[in-house]
Amino acid sequence: MASNSNITLKGLSKILNLSISTISKSLNDSSEISQLTKDRVKEVAKLYNYQPNRVAVNLKSGKTKTIGVVLPSIQNYFFNNVLNGIEQTIENTGYNILISITNESHKKEKQHLNSLANGLVDGFIISVAEETQQLKDVEHYKNALALKKPIVMFDRVAEAIESNTVIGNDKQAVYEATSYLKTKGKKHIALVTTLQNLNVGKERYEGYKKALEEFSNEAQLEIVLKTTSPTVESDFKSFLTSNLEIDAIIALDEESSLGAHKMTKELNKQIPKDIALIGYANTKIAEHMSPKLSTINQHGFKIGEIAALQLLHQLSQNVVTNKRTIVSSEIIHRQTS
Prior knowledge:
Layout: H1 9-16, H2 20-27, H3 35-47, H4 54-61, E1 66-71, H5 77-90, E2 96-101, H6 106-117, E3 123-126, H7 130-135, H8 139-146, E4 151-154, E5 164-168, H9 170-183, E6 189-193, H10 199-214, E7 223-226, H11 232-242, E8 248-251, H12 254-266, E9 276-279, H13 283-288, E10 294-297, H14 300-317, E11 324-327, E12 330-332
Parallel strand pairs: 1-2, 1-3, 3-4, 4-5, 5-11, 6-7, 6-8, 8-9, 9-10
Antiparallel strand pairs: 10-12
Helix pairs in contact: 1-2, 2-3, 5-14, 6-8, 9-10, 11-12
């Protein structure tokens, strides 16, 4: 009866009375070995639950069969969606995923990237930390590329690095949201954000600005609140009470969206009659809010799929490429707009 525990090449060699070299070549379908012998070896290997030693295989090939996924946070619904897209795409490819969280720290991102690039992963899928975008220090990315580790960046990118990027059409998405509210008769549209230090936040602001400028016959001054995650609710409450003319809000991130929705209701404003609201938030959360929150869907799962496929292609072809892919966002209108 075959053992349930994994057997080694040496064990198979003893059972079959063949050399370890012959066993190895048979399992790798070498043309040097007869088909009869290969079939016999594979049958016994299956019977005894033989599994190749991954470490040994990786050492021989020079590949780790591991992809490093570096994220600023896992608390954000968008990054969770992207990660799901990556995982489902990588599944059954023979690759493993090693996840690293930077918590928006440049120091952590640098440490993680340098450590992982030193023989632990074959390539990276990364969204840049907030501090890295502020400091514009990307030497650790250059070091990884110098070690021939391909990088695919998504959402937040380092423009100075030549690598594949998968991003949303942030400017266009907020432009369309702002324009929609204008066509609904909203004359004082406010913008609320905690992303003012990030490229995505700046792009979204430009979309808002462009839409206001295009309605020249109904010129509106910008009404913008730049806040932080811990203080968004208190800041927004003061902001709204100081700008009573506001009749619509576009919130550029989940914290701003949830905070604006909550505080608008606490101030006894009717949504969307008094103040309309479009934000960024998890679909499940948005649909369980009262009233249900209209959101801009970034299609995070699709972004994850594309990023993973692009990295897998580079790894299979042993190349490093420089390609930009844009995934269009979509406004999901619910009860707040």
